[in-house]
Amino acid sequence: MMEPRTGDRVRCATGIDGLDTILYGGIPTDNTVILTGSCGTGKTSLALEFLIHGALNNENSLFISVTENSEKLLANIIPYRFFDKDLLKSGKLVFVDLPAMYDRLGMTKAELSMEEIDLLVASISSLVRELNTKRLVIDSITSVCYKLKTPEKIRDFVLKLSKALSDLRCTSILVSEVAPHSNAYSLFGVEEAIADGIMLMSNLERRGDLLRTLQVIKMRGTMHSRAKYVLDLTPVGVLLVPLLKGGSAGT
Amino acid sequence: MSDANTPQGIAAQLSELSPGSAVSLQMSVDSYLEVMRGVLDIFARKKDMDTIYVTATISFEAIKRVLDALDIDTSRMYFVDCISHIMMGTTAAQKDEHASLVESPTMLENIMLKVEYLIRMSPSKNKLVVLDSINSLSIHNNNWILSEFLHILVSGLRAKDAYTIILSVEEHSTPEIVNLVNLVCDQVIRIGKPGD
Ligand SMILES: Nc1ncnc2c1ncn2[C@@H]1O[C@H](COP(=O)(O)OP(=O)(O)OP(=O)(O)O)[C@@H](O)[C@H]1O
Ligand SMILES: [Mg+2]
């Protein structure tokens, strides 16, 4: 973390045009970014698209799933026009279920100890090293945090994990779940302070219409738009347009 | 009727414009059919384009019926329909490959998103986007948001080298609406009544 913050950092282009424009080219490489939002706002879809574009670009991509099993996720991405099944065969895109990893590591208790946190970070790191992963998604970090319980443990876990991933030159998206009207970016209020970036997805009600929005709240190492964008989830991926402001001027 | 007001005349004026142009097409209610033939039949066919037709006036099914009656081929037309949903709720239209429904004409961002989606899906080199009409949209939106919408829509389409044609109906227009359309357009074409 000694690089100068000149805005000239190497970028990890998400491959989502609108988002790369918002980020002036992409996520600065090695950043750990929280992708947060309430349920159904499109977090998993956006995160998957980030990985597919990476894999298509010859960057090894890893999805660590905590809540849904990989098969269900696959069913979600197959409709994507740009998805290529060969990415799975060639190992460019890998899915790992975290519950299986917990079992393997013997983490059966409801709450992880400090030692187990270290072991979990070490296991994820060695997986990333082995696979030479350049893009990682953990969906969701909130589910992992439920097993940590205290803010101290969560802080410890997220700090160690993001340090390890950054050292391995891996650009990561940690999906975070929040309640619909929460003002926080994470359930425990801890992850957001540590992360290099925060991208917020939400539902916006405007005079009876419900719009899906995305906003980059922070992103270390780059300038970025702070405006809200409206998005659509389509078979060609996430599409974004600026939220029109004229409405708030009133009629 | 002068030559410029015939379908051939309308198409000829459009054909002089380069891809990426935005046109404010002002017409009287009575010229609708001539405009449809000139724009969707002669002009789009001549340039070998897919057409994305945004309707805020009548349902896409009703427009299709009109075009069928005029014997205009709709196989290369895609509709963004932002009126059916509020008029009669969700129908089978959602399953039509050639139509995307926007829930309400106030969801201008979603109109842009559907247009963007259809542009990306279209394999044709040149593309035409028709907005029917600014007057219908103005029933549901204030002029500030409409102007912002047109500005973003048109600059996006210009960057993609798509033609944009924004229809306005003289009988339903106000000077403000005409102004806000003309502000984003490179060319104004008036299709008047004979003797106009
Ligand atoms: N490519 C797509 N085209 C159309 N709709 C989609 C597409 N991808 C996802 N959706 C729809 O959007 C909804 C939300 O997507 P997604 O699962 O990515 O959100 P999420 O924020 O991860 O939700 P959750 O909190 O439940 O994990 C889903 O219900 C799905 O039906
Ligand atoms: Mg999800």
In CATH, the architecture of chain B is 3-Layer(aba) Sandwich
Residue stretches of chain A low in confidence (pLDDT < 50, at least 5 long) are 1-6
For the largest sheet of chain B, list the strands in their spatial order.
4-3-2-5-6-1-7
Content-based structural category of chain B: alpha/beta
> Quick one: CATH superfamily of chain B?
P-loop containing nucleotide triphosphate hydrolases
Shape of chain A: globular
Major sheet of chain A: order of its strands?
Answer: 5-4-6-7-3-8-9-10-11
Strand content of chain B: 15-25%
Coarse structural class of chain A = alpha/beta
Q: On the 0-100 scale, what is the average pLDDT of chain B?
A: 91
Q: Give the CA-based shape of chain B.
A: globular
Tally of domains of chain B: 1
CATH class of chain B: Alpha Beta
CATH superfamily of chain A: P-loop containing nucleotide triphosphate hydrolases
Structure in words:
The complex is a heterodimer of chains A (251) and B (196). In chain A, strands 5-4-6-7-3-8-9-10-11 form a nine-stranded mixed β-sheet. Chain A has a two-stranded antiparallel ribbon with strand order 1-2. Chain A is of the alpha/beta class and 251 residues long. Chain A has a single domain (2-242), classed as 3-Layer(aba) Sandwich (Rossmann fold), CATH 3.40.50.300. Chain A has helices at residues 17-22, 43-56, 70-77, 86-89, 98-105, 114-131, 141-146, 151-167, 191-194; strands spanning 11-12, 27-28, 32-37, 61-65, 93-97, 135-139, 171-177, 197-206, 209-219, 228-234, 237-242. The N and C termini of chain A lie far apart (49 Å). Chain B is of the alpha/beta class. Chain B has one domain (3-191): P-loop containing nucleotide triphosphate hydrolases (Rossmann fold, 3-Layer(aba) Sandwich), CATH 3.40.50. Chain B contains eight helices and seven strands. Chain B has helices at residues 7-15, 32-46, 60-69, 84-88, 108-121, 134-140, 143-159, 175-184; strands at 22-27, 50-55, 77-81, 99-101, 127-132, 163-169, 187-191. Chain B has a seven-stranded parallel β-sheet, with helices on both faces. In chain B, strand 3, helix 4 (84-88) and strand 4 (99-101) form a beta-alpha-beta unit. In chain B, helix 1 (7-15) crosses helix 2 and helix 7 packs parallel to helix 8. The longest helix of chain B is centred in the last third of the chain and has 17 residues, at 143-159. The mean pLDDT of chain B is 91. Residues 43-44, 139 of chain A line the site of magnesium ion (MG).
